[in-house]
Every structure is written in C-alpha cells, then in structure tokens.
C-alpha cells in the first residue's frame, strides 16, 4: 500500500471504512436477492451483445429503484475505469469489464476494483491532486475536475450506492 499524502488521508480513511461497511452489508446475500427487482420497472441489467452484463435501457427518466446487481456493477465499473484512467494506459472501456454476475462474486469484485482505485490515487504526488484533467476518464466531469474532487465524488458514490444496496436488501427481507 502506498503512503498517503496527508491531505488525502481523511478521504482514504473514509473510503476504507465505507468499503468495509459495504462489504459487511452485502455479506450472506443470495443470488435471488442480488438480482431481485424491488418494483416491476426497477433499473437492472441485461446481457449485452458481447455477452457481458450492462445496464438495461429504461424507457424514461422517471425515478426508479435499482437492483443490487446494477448497483454493484456500477460501483465495480466506476472504480476499475477511473483507476485505469488515472494511472493506467487509458484504454479500458465499459465493454471490457465483466460485471460480477453472482452474489458470491460481488464482494471480491468490489474489493479488487476499489483497491485499484485506492492504489491509483495514493500513487499520486501531492501536487497532482490539484491537476485538472489528471484523471482522463472520458465519461463524466473528470476531465474538468482536479483529482481531489474526483476522490471526494467517488467516496460519495460508494456511500450513496451502499445505502441503496442496504435499502434494497431490507425491502427484499420484508417482501420476497
């Protein structure tokens, strides 16, 4: 593990505890629960033309609940891709990713992908944290933001989607 730049330390501590809480909250999950739709038109995944899982198209922009498999895939993909576009060769695409297909594969996939993101961020020098566009991730606002802002955003995403996963698990336990 890389030494952490002092001003990055609180965000890395937040990432570590948030990931730990996510993994704890996912413990014991079944495949039925992982794929369960909390409502008939919940956002979920489909198998794409390349055989890999991807978000299913939704008919409109109406708010909807999301399946755990979709939330996990999103968290996995965003960490893998941002790590690659921060310190990697910037060639990885969504189509290259194999989202975790089972409940048993979800926690290891999240552990691996978020460790890659953490390693990418902690490999940077202090002055690189302020560089706009240092993370070349082409989807989203990354090219317009300093790395430190992206780290904050990634933590927010992890916390937010972990809360959604917990909520869906609670719903499943009471209705399925």
TrEMBL record:
Instruction: Read off the Pfam families from this record.
Output: DinB_2
Q: Which domain of life is it from?
A: Bacteria
Matching entries from InterPro entries are given as:
DinB-like (IPR024775), DinB/YfiT-like (IPR034660)
Q: Which Gene3D superfamilies match?
A: dinb family like domain (1.20.120.450)
Which residue numbers delimit the DinB-like domain? 14-165
SUPFAM superfamilies named in the record: DinB/YfiT-like putative metalloenzymes (SSF109854)
Protein name per the record: DinB family protein
